């Protein structure tokens, strides 16, 4: 059973706008890069058939090429949903059995969590979703087959995805996973990441900047 994963990545210059009050532009760029490294590292260890990075940012392309990934280049930066839809269509064209997508800002994701998402997918038509800690966002989605339903990201995407799946006759499986659940979006998330395990480049970077003591 062929499983492909896609990670949509916007341009690094405009990454993490909600962190502007606490991080400089250079820090936001560096954090976005570190988080992407953490995510691609976990995906590369998960034993999937293919990992794709969807982007139009040349620096992201250079970073991603350090891992065993394929680059899907966008003609323009149209947003998260459009980037995932592009990869979803490519997975369908190549005849993949399953399509997984996770964002590039979940640095605590582990290979074990990715494998857990794949394990709970039922044979035939199925959908698996991992919510964000808030319960509003969708931090991972696995579809079988890839075109079994459309995506639409942006809160409250988690509830919307569950509803869309049921409308198409699917009974979605839901997994709550601590690594995948933590997307770094607001200042409070920086403290959570910095006080966690030492295993991520992102946490080490934040500690080098003085977190968690540095005001967030």
Task: Explain what this protein looks like in three dimensions.
The longest helix is centred in the first third of the chain and has 21 residues, at 25-45. It is globular and about 50 Å long. It is 38% helix and 16% strand. Strand 5 and strand 6 (138-144) form a beta hairpin. It has eight helices and seven strands; from the N terminus they run E-H-E-H-E-H-E-H-E-E-H-E-H-H-H. It has helices spanning 25-45, 58-64, 80-93, 111-120, 157-167, 178-181, 187-194, 201-208; strands spanning 3-8, 50-55, 70-73, 98-101, 126-131, 138-144, 173-174. The protein has 216 residues and is α/β, with parallel strands linked by helices. The model has no long low-confidence stretch (mean pLDDT 94). It has a seven-stranded mixed β-sheet, sandwiched between helices. It has a single domain, classed as Spore Coat Polysaccharide Biosynthesis Protein SpsA, Chain A (Alpha-Beta Complex).
